[in-house]
Every structure is written in C-alpha cells, then in structure tokens.
C-alpha cells in the first residue's frame, strides 16, 4: 500500500491538495549525521518550475524533520518528514471536474475507492513522490557511509531522440562508469549527459509543449561501488525489488536491468560475463557486465544499471474527445500548464527509489553476515 | 525472501537436488473445488523434456497435495504441495565444481551465504519455480470463478526473430484479444502463435543448441476479463507487483506493461486512451489500450498485457574462458545437455506469477469494497 | 517496529521532546465520515493533567489531520495525523542525565541504539501512544458502523485494591455486559466503575503519590457486539493479536483473555461454554463465556473481554540506590512530578489498541467472506 | 495467518488428518550444522502417548528434512520439514460430527470458513504445533551458538496445585536460575521441578482423567544467557512478541512477563530493579529482576521469564448438554481418550515459540548493530 521496504521502511502520505505531504522512515541506522540539508538537495532537484521545460508551478518544497534526530544525529527511531502544500484547493482544474482525464488515475481511483479527491491528482499526484525522495536521501546518506555507493540517474531518451543504450556500446558503458550528478545537472534542463543529443531532446520537449501535447522518455540509472551479496532469492531478487520500486513511480511503463531487452537477442557465449581476478583487490570481477551487476538475484559488485520507461504525461491542454463522468461524449482540454515531459524531474525520484532498495537489501544482508559469522565461527 | 503475496501468499522451498520441492499456499478461499488434477496441467506444461528444444531431462513432476483440502474442496487452511526430486546427487556437473559458471548464480550464492549446494543450481535452479506454478494454478482456479479471468502467455521473440509488439499493431492487438492456451501449445514447441515466424524461432533455437550455445527471448502475457479496481497505490501499483513477480523469475532482464518502451516514443495525444461508454454493458471502456489495462496503478477492466525479457541461459557446453573458484584462469565447458532457450518453458511460469498477483490484488480489493459498502451504506 | 496491522495499519513516530508526534494510518475504508473531532475525544481522555492523580503537566494535544480526508470524508488514502510537542528541550530531568532510571528504558535504548534522546523518555515516552490513540479512534469509528461495536475499558485494580475478576462472578459479568464509557469517566478520576472500591483506589494512588512512590494496577476491557469469525489461525489468533497489542503498551506486564489465569484452575466440564440457540436471532450463543468470546482463535460473537496488568511507573522521585551511566554507585531521585499510577490514563490506550486489532481482523475476514461467496456461489 | 517471524520465519501447514503436517523455515543462517536429530528431540518431547497422563494415541512423529541442508549444513535457503500423519480419516469422532464441541474450534471454524475438516480438530488440532516445534528446534540450535542461550519451560501449576510464582520468592528465582530440561523431564510425567508438589499435580490430573474431565494449568519458561538489546519498540517490544507467540498456542488464556500480575500490586520503589556493575564482567546488571529481563521492550541481559496459562482441554468424554449443528438440544460425550491436561506436552511448544521470537529478534538487532558500526565508525 503506502509502505515500502522491510528494514529500511518508508511510509508516505499526502494528496496534491491536502495540508502537507511527507513520510515516516523507520529503520534508519542510529548515530548517523543527518540534518534537513541532507534531504533538501534532492527535493529541490525534484520540484517543478526548474526550467521552461517543466510545469511553471513554483513549489519550494522545504522539508521539516519532525522526529528521530537530535543534535544532528539519528536516534534509530522513526524519522517523520513534512513538506507543506501551498495550494490546498485550487480552481485550476475545472474541466477535470467534468471529465476523467484519459490515461490518468481519475477514473480508476473513483472505481476503486468510490470517492476521489476533488481537485488535481489527489493521491496519484506526483507530489506523493516527495516522501519517497526525502526517504531516499536518507538511504543515500547511509549508502555513502557503507561503501561510498554512488547512484546517478540521467535521461537517456526523449521520444525518439535516444542515446545508444546497447550494452555493447563503449560510449554507453563509459557514461555508466563515470557520469556524476553534477555533470547530469550541468548538461542542461533535460539532464542528458550525451551532449550530442541533449539539444535535440530539448527541442523535442519544446515542440510538444508548444503543441499543447506531451512526450515520453527513458531514465537510465547506474549504481557504482555496489556492495556484493545484496538481494534475496527467490522472490526478492535485487532486480525484482528494483523493478517493483521503479514501476511504482507514476507514469512508468517499462524496466530493464543490464542488457535488458537487447540482451534477449544475444547468445549465451556472448552474453555470459566471464570472471577474472582483479589484480589490485584480488576480488572476482567480470570482463563484461551484461548482467547489470546482478546474478541469480544477488549483486556481484559490478555496476548495477537499469532503465525505466516513462509514458507521455496524460494531462495535456490539447483537445481530446472522450466522455464525461456522466458518460456523455465531449471534448476535454486541460486548463493551465502541465509538464510536457517528466523525465528530467524523474531523475531524483529514480535515484531515491534505487537508494531505498539498496539500503534495505544491505541491512538484510548485514544480518545474515553476522549470523553466518556466529554459526561458522568465521566471517566471510 | 521465499514468500510472495499478502493474502494469497505462497512460500516455496527446494533446491535442484534435495528431497523434494514445493510450497505452502496460504489464504486460499475456502469451499473451492480443488484436486491435484487442477494443478498438474500447468506443472506438466512447465516440466523439461517436452521437446527437442528443451533440456532432455525427463522429470515427471507429479504434485502431491499434503493439506488444506478434503473431499476435493479447499478448507481455507494452508495448502502444502510437494513434488519429489528424482536425482538427489548427480555426478553430471563436475566441471562446475571447479568453475563458477559465468552469469550464473554459483558465485553470488557463495558470497551471499558462504556456502552453496554442491551440484546443479541449488536454490537458483529452475526447479524452484515448481512451487510457483503449483500455487499459480490454484490462483488461476480462483480467478476463473471470480470473473472467468483468462491468462495466456506466449513466446513473442527468440533472439532477433520477433513478433511485432508495437501496441499500435492490429495483428498484435488481435492476438492479445483472442489467443488461447490451446492455440499457444498447438503452435508447436516454441509456443509462438504467430505462424509466420514460429518456424524461424525453432530454427534459431536449434542453431544455438547445435552450436552448444543458447539464445534469449521474450514472453508476452495477456490477462482478459480483468476485474476493475485491482492494485494498491502508491507502492503496490498493479504494474509494480507484476514487474516484481516477473523479474523474480530466473533469467529475466526486462518488463514492460502496455505500450512499454515503445510508449516512451509516443506523444500524449496519441497515447492517451480516450474513454467511451460501452453500449452493451454501460461500462466505461477505452478506445485504445496503450495503458495495458492499468491507470494510476489500478486496473480499469481492459486487457492487461505485458512482456518479459529472458536472457540466453548461462549454462552452455561451449567453451568459455573464465576463472576457477581458486581464481585460476581456465576454460569451462558444461557437461550434459542444457536448455538452449527457456522461453517456451517460461510460459506457464509467467502465467503462474501473473495469477498470483491478480488473485492477491483481488482479495485485497474485495476487503475494501466490503468495508466501503459498510461505511457508505451502499455498494459501489 | 513502528507499524501495527496488516490492512488497517498504523505507523507511529515521535519522541517525548521532538517537534511533533503522530502517525500515518493506511487502509482506512473510503467514504467514511471523519473529522478531527472524532479523534480528539480519545486524545483528550488520554492526556495528562486531568486530575490530581496524574502528572500535572497539562498538554492540550490537539490533533491535526494532514491528509486522507476531504470535506469530512475519508478518501481511502493514508491519513497522517500530527500533535505538536510543546516542550521540545526541557531542563527538568537533569539527574536522569547522570543515572539511567531503574526499570526504565534509558539503559536498554542506549545498548540497543548506541545513542539515546537527551531528555525525557525519548521514543519510550508515553507520548508515543498519542499516535495509537488517534489511529484507534478511526478504527473505532469504523467498528461502530460495522456492527455498533462497543469497546469499553476500565480500571479493575490499583495495587491490592481489586475488583473481583473471577469470571464466575455475576457482578463482574454484569459490569462487562453493561458498562459504558460515560459511566467509567463519571466514576471519578480512577475510572473504576465499582463504586465500592473506587474511593480506596484513589486513596491508594494518593498514598503512593504523597510518598514520592508509584503503584501498579490492572485495566479490564470488554468488546461488545463483536462480529463473528474474526482472527486468523494459526499464529494470528484473535487473542494472540490482542496480547501483542496490549503488551506493546508501555509498562504492561500481563494479559489474560476470558477466564484467564483463573481459568487454569477450572475443570473442563465447568469451563466449557455450552451452546444454545438464541430464540430471537436464531444465532448460536453460549450459556457461559469463559472463552472470552474467542474459540480456536476466532471470535464467536460473545463479548470479548481481557485484562492487562501495568507495573508501577518506574520514574519516582523517591531516592533509589543505583549506578550512574559511568558505573558509579549513587542515589537517584527524579525531579519534577510524575504519574504515580498509569492505569486511568491507560484506559483509552487499551481501547485504541483493541480497536486497531478488531478493525484489522474485520477487514481481513471481509475479504475471505467475499471470496468464499464467489467460489461457493453463496454467502455464509 | 500461518507465518510467524520477520527474518527467521516459519510457515506451518497441516490438519489433524491430512497427509502430513510440517513447515517451511526461511531465514536460517547459512553454514550451521543441522540434521534431523537436532529436531527430533523436541518433537519426541511433544508427541502424545508419553505417559498415562496424556492421550494414549502413540504417534511417532518422525521428521524428514526436505530441503535447505546438505551434508549436515544449512544452506541459508528455506528448510522444509514434514511429519507424516498416520491416521488420515479416523472414525473415532462420530459424536462430534453431530455436535460442535463446546469451547472448541468446531463452531468458529465453520462460521469463519463456511466449511470444516470432517474429523478431529482439523487445523485447530494440536498437530499444527509440530511445525512450530520443528522450527523452534532450529532456532534453538542457532541461539545456542549465539550465546549459549538456554530456554527451559516447566509446569508451574495444575488446577489449584501451584508453585509459588511470586517473583519475590527465593525458591522460584532459584528454579529460574538453575533448572535444566533434564531436570524437568526427570521430575516425572508432569514436568514440574518442584518435588514437593509434583505428585499432587499428578494426582490432580489423574482425578480429572478418571472423571472423564480435564483440568488447566500454567507453564513457566525462563531464557538464560539472553543477548542484550533484543526487541523492537514501539509495537514489537520483546514482551509483545512473546505474548503474541504464546497466545497463538492452542488453549492459552494468559501471559505474564517478569513480575506479571503480581507486579501490579507492588510499588515502584520495590519493583524498580536497581543497577549495579558486575565485578567480573564490568557489565550493567540489576539487583532484582522484576522486569523479567526486558525494559522498554528491549532485553537487558537478565533472565527473561514468563508464564502461560492453559485452560482445561475442551474435548472431554463427560456428558455435556449443548446443541447440535442443526441447533437441537442434546448431550455430547466425546468418544475415545483425550488429553485430560495439556501442560506437560505444552512445555516443548512454549520453548519452541520462545526460541522463534528470540532468534528473530537477534537477527534483527544484528543488522542494526552492523549498520550502526558502519555509520559511527565504531561498534557498540
């Protein structure tokens, strides 16, 4: 429902126009440095109004920690976080009082609950992701301390303008190996680090924005300095948890890990990642990484990388022939201005969900490691 | 870990060479007709040795219900099911005692647990999926009674030989609308209902089999007569649960729902599924179904359809340069015969996991519906 | 950890001196009338400073709903509730900076988390129960609509001053059958409806208060108009869930359901509750109710009643010989005034936890009922 | 439902007369020595027919491990265990086909599920506890390796024949400190280590047995060499988990931890457990242990001790006036011989459930400890 994770567990709350949105994060390790500044950075990257490519609503989204820390340290107790909503009851959405927006959650929420929030997206609004991003920022802080884990997401396609994501592409693997968040943000409003195509992506968004339409895209994410041994067979394989996490983000339509759908066209002798022993660390590594850092559902220490497909946003101001809640045919054109494309803003959300998955998997494996050390009288 | 589901919950057990494999299914509705015959059909579709395209091991995989039914009716109590393993300690895998198989779970299980099963895939073996298929068969039985729900999966690509899965393709939508399990099985050993390409798929598998290699593929699945209102925002959106379920199947690399990655290239005015009122039922329906039957994480009653990408099997008898467990470079060629391609056998596994997700989501929504009827003094 | 329940699930947060305390309640049925007034009543019954028998701190504890309702109706989405803390960093507890309070959580929190809140009880403070009481009020509202369920708790003993709780006592059964919350509150500050002993209880508390000491007691609770069939064998028997809920309340030492420990002294032919058919309703009832309304872990429709033992509060201002955090022997006398007895204030907390258990069990059984009706083509 | 635990999780299955009963235990630490012999000991202590005091049915209850171990070591994967049922469809219970047994689960199962097993107790049968005892034996094995944890339960009362359980009794505390399982079993069929009253207990059971009646009793359990810091505030306090575990055992009516209900009559200055520093270990200990080894829901390293009340068994062969399933008044006298008292056989079940709680809590705290060590760069 509204909770995610086993040990490092977030529960979010809030609709688009209620008093506040936020979350409770349970299971945060005690004694960790943590202040609101650690959380605000990603919230600020998530908020709308950052560029002409996104919705012009300007929401400051300042987070307030309610509990679970003292003198800048975590207590190990639940951390509640709140971001106040500014506009609690807007008048901006009147057409959508009459028409359920096609491909939006308006209709299904009504069938599911028999009632729906009167304005905006209600619980299905992207504002729900504020709680996720806040929780993810805490998870990231932990992972940085664990192993200097780096999680970087970026836009890899907008409409048909796409980076070459073939896992055999050297350029793609080079980006996965080296890209930083700073570079992603410096690459411009579209957050695509491939300078050759980023301008075309911007044009693509602008074209659809000016056409009162919207366009989809893909976010790719890499996790470097991955701890080994994370993920729980059989049902909670690491890629299964990541897929669950990513497909729970609004507007997502697909997920692929490592070689992904491209890998289905490869033969085993090419796709298998041969082992070698790293001279420096003595650690087992693989020459290629079509597995995307996960084998048998368990991380092997190589980079975890995956891509998430986002559909074009459903709310557009272009006219659409559809039917009203009363079942009468008519034409809907949403008032106001809406995101013509969500992928740049989805970047910190994808990073947050990835951090939640990895932090939880790490805490679970730490328990097993400790227990195995006890029963075998040795660590491993 | 080894459990999946909230209300309709399966817990599986078993490794490739232990005494038996199986599962406990908790939360099965009481009073339902159920015998072993209901379960055996899908287990038989899943077992190896069905054709020259799969592993020649012939495992009968006869299920035995241990508990939870009496006189052919479910009691509402946990249903335990067992399938005995035939070969408990084979000698067939000696090279793999020396070398962790590249892209297999051998290495990661060892790092995770500090110990691994001495032969075969252990817990990572596809035999683990027997418990899932058995549980899924019970879920399917329930869903048939709920709404005559039909779940049909089929092979949509092998290597580069692919059906046109563009959601705008009429042929593809026609297959989704009409394909039956009988047709899938009648289509030949590759289980692809597109007669134009099925023979090429067979050749593709044979080519890699004869080359001691393997090849990947894609399974597509459709769920028809879907109940409306299933799926739980925010984290347990129906597509998120399906993605979790599918990526927990061994060898999977990708998942897409509805328009999937193709949908990321579409603009909103094309992708939005306009509503209309069905003349016969008076029910809200959509003219197109790029959403794949789910909007805002909740089913809208249209067909749910999705595709799952499978990598080429990791165990091949072709020589691979890699390193031994001791870290010495060497060459591994797995003895024996192995599945050159898993997708035909994955078909009933995908169906089973889909059934588990839908049955669980249905039980959850039934609770809400009942409660809402109580508090509002009306049904909905 | 900080979550309780499966379908009707509360997650609480907050320490004694952080910014606010509160909770998120997930799974509340949609379309139900709900405003802050529905919640405030029980919070007000819980707060300190209500009489000379409790701590003189006067906390208003006004609840603010953040989400999940609109125009006084629940949306089916998570309901977040906040109560601001007044004193965020008091100076009142200086001795307790030096000494871990005996039988308090000071020492164990420090060993568990390696850090503890600097003042007051931190997370172990009774302020954590505010979130429970707020959530319980929503659960109660639902249960009232379900079956006019009545949950009434009262003080049945203070120190050695005890009501006769022998399940064979007619007076005791009469109280269970008829007592109302109004009568409990009208009975005076000790909330004991037995007018013969309530004054002695008050004296008992006053004696210990004046002696800078504290005293324990017992709260008994009855649930009337119980729906049948609630509780999930094997591990989630209704009495097991109630026991879990009650022993999670701070300062509890014991739980007994129905005949309780007294029942262990009875023989089967006396203890068995013979069935009869109620002439009016045609419903199966039992002549006696030593079972406490639960048989085989499942409610049978008779009154559920149970008692919860509370130890004397650990924080007393009487001098105690103990050791400091540094391990030095010394004498601790807590400053300020503290609750000499918690049972009157525990009354609404016990009611809240009972309501949470019953509401959750009801939602679970509604799902089964609906499913069984589907598979058997009949209700039951 | 049929699962218990978070990390160390058991799922049981089986009715009194199905093919087999058993369980799957997930989360067992890998690399631990484990064979069937480790499990059989407690199963044998649990089985009926051990003395003239219990049911004369002689069930051998030999456990068979199905999975999760190899060469006598755990693999970290789920361990399935099976005990075959001997009598699958007995004819011994014909009267109970006509009459729901008073205070038994017959009636409530029927209302809950709309169907019930045709003979015996079905799922409510004590045979369900076989899976618990098998799982508990594994948990105990782990706890022995953790800290040489000792869990010993014994009978402390039968009917009105009771040991003095006043926590201030030196004799009682001495038993808690020193009693061994060997002594408990050597004490005779009633498993009460107090030689002064054990013979009277035996007579008490014999009297009720000969009278075709039954009698209740109390089992007390102590856990020595307890690891510190186990238990999770707020809802999963260690005593709450123990209470949940114990009240999930069939026929239980009460639970008390440490001073229990007796503690409610004490004043704080007596009840508080003053700290001292243990000269040998330098460890904080308490002079008294009214807390029962748990403070603030977290273990402090002192002995955890608690008592569990069991009602007289409901199935008696004495005549009882009641009504049939059809609602007709009549007289039921159960055929066959039944346990006149369950407490001696409950001893290993109480131990098993205690072991499951402690093992799970330990695994959870190990995760936190590891995480805290990472974030603070020190252990604690």
UniProtKB/TrEMBL annotation, chains A, B, C, D:
The lineage of its organism: Eukaryota, Fungi, Dikarya, Ascomycota, Saccharomycotina. GO terms for cellular component: cytosol. Reduced FMN (FMNH(2)). Keywords: Amino-acid biosynthesis, Aromatic amino acid biosynthesis, Lyase. This is Chorismate synthase. Its EC number is 4.2.3.5. It comes from Nadsonia fulvescens var. elongata DSM 6958. It catalyses: 5-O-(1-carboxyvinyl)-3-phosphoshikimate = chorismate + phosphate. One of its GO terms (biological process) is aromatic amino acid family biosynthetic process. SUPFAM superfamilies: Chorismate synthase, AroC (SSF103263). InterPro entries: Chorismate_synth (IPR000453), Chorismate_synth_AroC_sf (IPR035904), Chorismate_synthase_CS (IPR020541). GO terms for molecular function: chorismate synthase activity; FMN binding; riboflavin reductase (NADPH) activity. HAMAP family: Chorismate_synth (MF_00300). Pathway: Metabolic intermediate biosynthesis; chorismate biosynthesis; chorismate from D-erythrose 4-phosphate and phosphoenolpyruvate: step 7/7. Belongs to the chorismate synthase family. It is an enzyme of class 4 (lyase). Its cofactor is FMNH2. Homotetramer. Pfam families: Chorismate_synt.
